[in-house]
Amino acid sequence: GGATTEIAMNTVRWGLLSTANINKRVIPAIRASERGELVAVASRERESAAAYAAQWGIPQAFGGYDALLESGAVDAVYVSLPNHLHAEWTVRALERGLHVLCEKPFALTTADVDRMAAAARANGRVLAEAFMYRHHPQTKAVGEWLRAGRLGAVRLVRGTFSFRMTDAANVRLKPELGGGSLWDVGVYPLSFAQYVFGGPPEWVFGHSRAGVTGVDVGFSGLLSYAGGGMAQISSSFDLPWYTHADVLGEHGRLVLNRPFTGLVPGERRLMFVDADDRAEQVPVEEQELYAGEVEDMHAAILDGAPPFISLDETRNHVRTALALYASARRGERVYVAEIGE
Questions:
Q1: 60-63 and 203-210: which strand pairing?
Q2: Nearest to residue 179, comparing CAs of 129, 88, 105, 244?
Q3: Which of 89, 214, 273, 327 gives 206 a disulfide partner, CB atoms 3.0 to 4.6 angstroms apart?
Q4: Which one, of 231, 224, 232, lies nearest residue 337 by Cα?
Q5: Active-site residue, selected from the candidate residues 24, 104, 140, 174
Q6: How far is residue 47's CA from residue 60's CA, in Å, rounded to a whole number?
Q7: Cα–Cα dist 7/248, whole Å
Q8: With contact defined as beta carbons under 8 Å apart, do 155 and 308 qualify?
Q9: How confident is the model at residue 269 (pLDDT cuts 50, 70, 90)?
Q10: Is 140 part of the annotated catalytic residue set?
């Protein structure tokens, strides 16, 4: 009767496409949200899906991703598959009439980004890239400082994200699966620079250090933006855990101790350092790191709000990463306009 229709319109039923490690961060965010419900998980093997569902208390388990997509049990899926499978399964989900939150990197080519965006348009469904840190009040506070002009002209953004990859069998080390540190964690400082400068760079210069499997276990990039802004980004799989970002403007700088990852309560995190080198902490509202991206999907699906991270922005993340990889291969600067037009 009327009651069930009411529930259906006010709640997004989520399914997880894969049993990836990142799910453990998104599951609590869906459960804590007011309008989301986690109802299903799929894995290639029925047994692993069932075991995962039991472990996390998820009502339904599916052997095979198609089985979940065709079940009618969910309204939206979170795609946390290995990088090279993002495009294929996102398109399949959209064609089944499901909304998709796709883990970064969204896709490995601009052609795939365009195919995904076209499927979202054709089926009238919400599609967004899961950059959780962009939805956090700390990142939004940086945006407010920039819009208010408090740093003056921003000349330089620096960002880094490193961790030690100890598992030699990890998909992130396999070139054919879209492995590499830039695709995995370098896209965080890359996307942060685009956020600060309001779009992609004009040109980039990339330098990569290959590991035994051939993927970049270390990557450094220089990004040159219209109007003279520059960014320096780096990523690594063979250094201890470290994230940091700075936004340097003519009136001072913002310093982010943990720009992309869970914040430690009570720890200094967002600082403003003025032109006289005086530091002050910028207050940031507490929020669970993954809550924002889930709530943003709910607003898009249930209220028709535009997703906070547009597909145009996502396309520019992918183009810029591809330009950096091309530059590292060629040993010369690459103009982003060359990529995927």
A1: unpaired
A2: 105
A3: 327
A4: 224
A5: 104
A6: 12
A7: 48
A8: no
A9: confident
A10: no
